[in-house]
Amino acid sequence: MNASDTRNTSTLLEWSTGEKSETMHGSSLTFSGYLLTVNSTHETIRSPLKPELTSYLLSGLIPWTGYNITLRRLYSSVDVWRNNRRTRLGRAATVTIKTEPSNPPAPKEIRVLANEEGKVVVQIVAPDFWNGPPFKYHIHWEAQDQERNLSGYREVNVSSPWPSEKKWTTANLTLVPGVRYNVYVSAQNYIGPDVLLMGPELEEQVITAPLVPIDLVAESLTPIEATVSWRAAGPAEYFQVTVDEEYIHQGFYSYQPPSANSPAHFRARVFWDEKTESSEHSLIVNNLLPARDYVVKVLACTLNECSDIRRAVVFTQPAPTPKPDITIVDSNLNSFVVGWTFPRYNWRSDYDGFLVRYCRMSKVCEESYTDLHLMNVSSLRPDTIYNIEVRVNIKHSDGHVEVGPAARAQVKTWSKRPGKPQLRTHAEGA
Q1: For the Fibronectin type-III domain, which residue ranges apply (predicted)?
Q2: Where residue 165 sits, what CATH number does that domain have?
Q3: What residue numbers bound the domain in which 385 lies?
Q4: Residue 34, strand partner residues
Q5: Do residues 188 and 169 lie in contact, with contact meaning Cβ atoms separated by under 8 Å?
Q6: The model scores a pTM over 0.85
């Protein structure tokens, strides 16, 4: 048996029949055809052939693969009474071939191993069969947005012969941060000088992470509002802005709310306008608390790939110290009573009681302190006008004491004690 016209997926087998022996020597088995066995490192094929054949086109082979081909005569008999079939094989005729190289298939997979500031590392998983001597990977890329006109290519060598224990190759790509790319990879075989066989391309979307925003500034506008501004360092699709209250835990700053499930105080997505790539982006954050530290975090994103975080801290302006609201003013001959309310919400710091000042003739004044919302002042002069001022006493965490603005009222003591009522009686019939 010999093989001829061997190509990348087929070979022509031819053999001579020699003396046709219809029966196996020393046996009642009769010649019924041939058994063709094809062995390679990848597969084993067995095919029965008709007895009248002297040639056979063996197809469906793998390119650039060595095969051991064996052809044996097949003898058989059928025992009708016992309902069984007996078979025996004759001596083997063998031939060894290696199929021709062919275009390699596409790589199996493209994996992104690293992606930071346009430095992308991809891993190319080799095809199962190269169909020839592995040579190179051809890589080219282009931005999905054709108006950007961002494209390039490079070639990466692979080792030959291809090591069985390594089925991948890594490649470093330098791309523009913040852009969506289509990356195409094809495998190449080297057949000889000026003879390269290139396979089909495998396409993969690669999204580069944008650069970190720059020039982040956060400033307090009012006790409950702050403005945040920044500039883009390069292309992006949107900016993610979050504002959280700053907490101190065991002497360290923590930029996360106390509960992991707590939402950020403020979250916004600001879309990037490519026409104003280098311009400043800004927004106003409201509903903040006065006199608090807030951490502003801004990151640039393209789809789900985002930059590192840029942080800034803003301290909101203190709220104006409120006045007490005087609700009760009353007097008698030598005393007066004054009462007030004060907002209970946590507007700035804990207040520490109230200072009540009362003056007659605008120069003779006295002061008293109380932690209640009511004060009774006695031992006063009758028929005298008193000007009353009530202020909140603020004690800050650093020990500093501050007195708030005054709520004012005026009261006059009685000029004399009211006389007793005169009771007159009139006798009936008088």
Answers
A1: 1-102, 106-212, 322-418
A2: 2.60.40.10
A3: 325-412
A4: 49, 73
A5: no
A6: no
